[in-house]
Amino acid sequence: MKVLVIGAAGMVGKKLIQRLLDGNSPVHPLSELILYDIIDAEKPFAKIPVKIFSGDISKADQAKILASEKPAIIYHLASIVSGEAEEKFNKGWHTNAHGSWNLLEELRVISEESEGEYKPKIIFTSSIAVFGAPFPDKIGDEFLCAPQTSYGAQKAITEMLISDYSRKGFIDGISIRLPTICVRPGKPNLAASGFFSGIIREPLNNMEAILPVSDQVRHWHASPRSATHFLTHAGTMDLKKLESRRSLNMPGVSCTVEEQIDALRKVAGNEVIAKIKHKTDHKITKIVDGWPRDFDPVRATTLGFKSENTFEEIIKVYLSDDFEK
Amino acid sequence: MKVLVIGAAGMVGKKLIQRLLDGNSPVHPLSELILYDIIDAEKPFAKIPVKIFSGDISKADQAKILASEKPAIIYHLASIVSGEAEEKFNKGWHTNAHGSWNLLEELRVISEESEGEYKPKIIFTSSIAVFGAPFPDKIGDEFLCAPQTSYGAQKAITEMLISDYSRKGFIDGISIRLPTICVRPGKPNLAASGFFSGIIREPLNNMEAILPVSDQVRHWHASPRSATHFLTHAGTMDLKKLESRRSLNMPGVSCTVEEQIDALRKVAGNEVIAKIKHKTDHKITKIVDGWPRDFDPVRATTLGFKSENTFEEIIKVYLSDDFEK
């Protein structure tokens, strides 16, 4: 089975590739792995052929190249992050929406040429940014998409495309609405949600962290390990079970920033907490104010998707998987 | 005030133009009317300048031409209808989604060049086809979009674009989710919903009508006169009132086909009813099965949008506005 990962150089992409190649992955047997991103992904250690190349997915020729590989499974993880898509309107729309659309169009052409014999499974990482305030206490599976960022609108549109192309039988797709993935290893990125990881990661690494919003902000989190599980689980499940609704809210942990900090105190002590400095950023506050706080992800849970149950567990996953002493 | 009507040769377009020019329209003062469609619209009687031209809105140069007119209000009513968009995948997507997107892009460019001074009001006719089964008894204002036709997906995507371009301040937009407009005057079109009008219009005109679905099918209707009111009301209202959600479910009448036929019997008698022949069409049945049955359009009602209260009223509007003895 040939698997293509678009967005292979990103954090979730790297984790996914590691999992796909760890000898124990539920997505098997792999015959070839194709890694694509705006920059060349790191070459992983692998017993199967791995093809690595890079390009700009917003360009139409790239979609043609990727589709011509005829992968059986396509993980589409690539996107301009929320903060950048808000700043650079054109770039966000071209990459996050037109890029996905071009890819689906090329896959449709190949599917039609093969008279339906070729029908790739596409697993798209959408986001809870498809939702916008005002919210109910818990967002249910039938709550409307009303994004309040361009990033969220681009994700919602790609979801719509994936649903319709799947309904018509050109592809077999699923959109996974990821919680904010936390604790992200490595350096901060331009995502407006970056501080949710920063306030845990930086103090644990003996660095100062800026908290740009009120500690009463409640949000929805899952670990990178859970994200990888969501993706491999989607890669093995029978997507017919989704029936006519191919976008799924993933499970996660709902907590306030204060509760995040309390969990960090429990795990690492008061000295570590002291590294968090509160400095309000109104632009980030405005974006985050429009974000979801809590979910009731009944469908995903019923379909076997799992996450952590407490934020403490999320911190422990970071310490176990990514923390370097 | 310069007003552009895209889709000016269609049924709703014609009714809207008539209303805009009837000397009593709430949308005033009009300085110029621009009528655009795939074919030249009929020249209306008017005391103000009327420009009429035609083209294919899916072509990028057309969007540029339309935007360069800098209309203050744009009524965007044009689309490939549901049945045709289902048959012709490419044509549907190009016209209904890319066509709208091109237009918004051209308007954005002009808006940015004018440093925000030019910010047209866009009134887009979306559809209840953005919803897909399974449904609650009544669809509320926060129910998810899960279209089960390409037409519905194209409408939902255009809604998303209009919301995001409005949020960014390039345009001031609203998406009006029309009920099925009934009774349509004139000849049948390719819309899968066409029979809802046909079973009333044809018998009243002493012609046979085919009912392709069960008479237990429940659906959501409003008259062409209500559609015109929705559009002129949107044209005069302060769209800031929509806050962060720019798509609105319009009010209408929920009834079964059996109730439609009963209303026709009351208005026109048993002889007329006898002209309706039941002949199941599985393709239309399948499409219509995925359509909404009833709504609770609280937001639209609160904002002053009104429709008929019974299907009998809807038939009487047809007899008064469109029936030719």
Task: Give a verbal description of the structure.
Two copies of one chain form a homodimer. The first copy, chain A, has 325 residues and is of the alpha/beta class. Chain A has a domain at 2-179 and 223-249: Rossmann fold (3-Layer(aba) Sandwich). Chain A is 41% helix and 17% strand. Chain A is built from twelve helices and twelve strands. In chain A, the strands form three sheets. A seven-stranded parallel sheet of chain A has the order 3-2-1-4-5-6-10, sandwiched between helices. A three-stranded mixed sheet of chain A has the order 7-9-11. In chain A, helix 1 (11-20) packs across helix 7, helix 6 (194-204) packs parallel to helix 8 and helix 8 (257-268) packs across helix 12. The radius of gyration of chain A is 19 Å and the shape is globular. Chains A and B meet through helix 5 of A and helix 5 of B.
Unreliable stretches of chain A: none
Give the class of chain A from helix and strand content and strand pairing: alpha/beta
Overall spatial form of chain A: globular
Number of helices of chain A: 12
Q: Please name the CATH architecture of the domain at 2-179 and 223-249 in chain A.
A: 3-Layer(aba) Sandwich
CATH topology of the domain at 2-179 and 223-249 in chain A: Rossmann fold
Q: Which homologous superfamily in CATH is the superfamily of the domain at 2-179 and 223-249 in chain A?
A: NAD(P)-binding Rossmann-like Domain
Q: What's the total number of strands of chain A?
A: 12
The strand order across the widest sheet of chain A is 3-2-1-4-5-6-10
Oligomer: homodimer
Order of helices and strands of chain A: EHEEHEHHEHEEHEEHEEHHEHHH
Strand content of chain A: 15-25%
The rounded distance between the terminal residues' Cα atoms of chain A is 38 Å
Major interchain interface with per-chain residue totals? A-B, 26 and 26 residues
CATH class of the domain at 2-179 and 223-249 in chain A: Alpha Beta
Overall pLDDT level of chain A = 96
Fraction of residues in helix of chain A: 40-55%
Rg of chain A, Å, rounded: 19 Å
**Main sheet of chain A?**
7 strands, parallel
